[in-house]
Amino acid sequence: MILTAATTDLFAFDEARLDELATSHPGPFFAYDLAAARERFDRLRAALPARVRLAYAVKSNPGLPLLEAFAGRGAWFDCASAGEVSAALAAGGTGAGMVFAGPAKTERDLQAALFAGARVQVDGIEDIARLHALHTGETPLAVNVRVNPAGGVSEVASIIGGVGPSAFGVDEEVLEAFVTEAARFERVEIRGLQVFSASNELDAGRLLANHRTALRIGRRLQELLGRELDLVDLGGGLGIRYALTEPNLDVRAVGAGLGRILGENDWFTGELLLEPGRWLSGPTGVYAARVVRTKVSRGERFVMLEGGINHLLRPLLTGQSFPTLAVRPGEGVVDGERATTTLAGPLCTSLDRVGTGDLPVDLRPGDVVMFGQTGAYAYTQAMSHFLSHALPEQHWVC
Ligand SMILES: *Cc1c(COP(=O)(O)O)cnc(C)c1O
Prior knowledge:
By secondary structure, this protein is an alpha/beta fold.
């Protein structure tokens, strides 16, 4: 695990604000900048052609104020459980602007999606059979089919899975047989496609190559169905940098590329859908945990924090930490000589490590370690219940 010693560049708040947050909140907390969320949504929207819709992936951060901020700007929502559907509706989202995904949808999930009026991303014939049984409308229920591409996809770190055996979707090789089988269920009609195989992509060219693959599959699907597709869903995957050494994803290049892809695919008259989670919510959040004690064990420096993998699990899951800096309440960012340090949490397991990297030697109890880019895949992804510590607070800054 590598911690990046960062300036406030990878943080949603400036030094004065971080200091204020550290001073006013004694326990571990997440703080989110809603103005940054609104700005990011508007910036991405402005970079995309009009035929591309934006659905916020609720799983990246289902916090209600964030959902409300996006709903207020006309966002669609990508939901994957009955709970996420409720949250999106409570925030002002609508079924007409909702897609519903998941590799193991129960009847309860499907009922929630149907009740809301969401477009379901079908992952296999079971979804179609269940929807056929549940759907009571006069006209056939329009669904998307999720396809697992046979090639032409790259993913740098395995998060969604790239190309290969997958729990998600219908393998491209068996798409024709799937379409034939699905036609037996006349109350369900495949009208769209979803392809999403790579997450946290920082290179616009690679992202667009994956999108081209999706349109190639879409063309074949439309031919197999003999019916026009109205929606091709390209999934999420827009990356953010977790270190200053990484590039920013060029979203204007993504927008221009999608415009070119639409131009190259004149067989397709429907809309494209992007479902970013991380890109929209990640940079809005900061996690903060106080130093409880420090120690040197057999030559290795440890700093023990009040929160660990019960609040931030991503480092353990992906091997990569969040950008980190330390604040001394009332004094600002702690600087000075640095040494390799392991940040450990309060849990009674050696798994509880949130990073190793160069941190100030002067760190002491009461200092607050801040983790940037923690607006996505942090609060709800952690193993909050393990060892029964209190949940971190969440603060929404307008
Ligand atoms: C997780 C997920 C997303 C969001 O992915 P990001 O990499 O956070 O943009 C979008 N769509 C689906 C179906 C997902 O499972």
